[in-house]
Amino acid sequence: MPAAPRKLSPQSLAVLDALHGREWLYGLEVSAATGLKSGSLYPILIRLADRGLLESRWLEPERPGRPARHAYRITGAGRSALAEARRPSASLALGGI
Amino acid sequence: MTDPRSDLAARLMALAARNPPADRIEWAAAMRGEFATLDHGRLSWATGCLAASLVWRAPGEASYAALLAGGVYVIGWGMSRLGWALFERGLLSVEAGLVLPLPTLLIGTFVLALLAGLARPGRAAATALVLGLAPSLIGLALGAGPLGTLEAAGAPAAVALALLTGLAAFGAVAGAWLGARPPQHA
Asked: Which residues contact A64 (CB under 8 A, 6 or more apart)?
């Protein structure tokens, strides 16, 4: 069950923003869209997934011999959290996860 | 020829994805999956993944270290009680009581490290550090222990610590190697 709503950090919002309105994105694509390095990106992806704000699945590799790739998509809860954070009154409450 | 930086990146990535906690196995594989597609920036990606993995591995390593240090304390306490009991019953002479602690300590450290390395091949570094340093630190806290034993044999404290840690590292790596070796089939 997703955890109770908590404030989202600007980096977490950037990840949700990158996923918003798109289909499945790979970790590298999220990294490129947000400018987050892998050391920051994965802890954020994990927390967002734990909170039910994004979902993940494995996609078959495009080139044979390569491992499957993990892809991410924003959930309804993620869209709600993003919309909530974008509200002007919520911008003061940005903290960190 | 293999680019040394690329090889380093692959090693760091393998280290990052090694032995993740059960709830991070999927994420470790996800990092590896992206790494495998990279042609540029491999070292940066692998370094970041390693940093992330260290954070999620820290609680497990700390629990393991605490458990091992607790075990060392109990074994050390038990050995000293056994020595006293044997001495009080006349089964251990004063001379033997003075001579035996040193080989017992050295052999015991190696054997414990070997067993711990066999049981937890992926934690050889933690095993070496804990078994090399914990007995001395616990001993120092209690006003006695391995450092005193080694110093009595003429080794300065720094040398004694290095010797114990080196011995523990040797045992842990040997145990890890034996534990990780595939079974031989006839």
From this structure: none
Question: Is A37 a domain residue?
Answer: yes
The residue segments making up the domain with residue A21 are: 10-87
pTM: 0.63
Assess if residue A34 is contained within a domain: yes
The helix/strand/coil state of B172 is: helix
CB hemisphere CA count around A86 (13 angstroms) = 11
Residue A26 lies in a domain: yes
Tell me if A44 sits within 8 A of A12, measured CB to CB: yes
Q: Are B109 and B164 in contact (CB under 8 A)?
A: yes
Q: pLDDT (tens digit, 9 = 90+) per residue, A12-53?
A: 999 999 999 888 999 999 999 999 999 999 999 999 999 999
Nearest CA in chain B to A58: B30
CATH of residue A83's domain is 1.10.10.10
The answer to whether B158 touches B183, Cβ cutoff 8 Å, is no
- In tens, the pLDDT along B107-131 reads 888 898 999 888 888 788 888 888 8
In A, minimum Cα distance to B43 occurs at A38
* Cβ-proximal residues to A53 (8 Å cutoff; 6+ apart), any chain: A2, A16, A74, A75, A77, A78, A81
B interface test, pick of A28, A38, A44, A54 with most B CB neighbours within 10 Å:
A38
> A71, A24 in Cβ contact below 8 A?
yes
CA pair distance A76, A73, nearest whole angstrom: 10
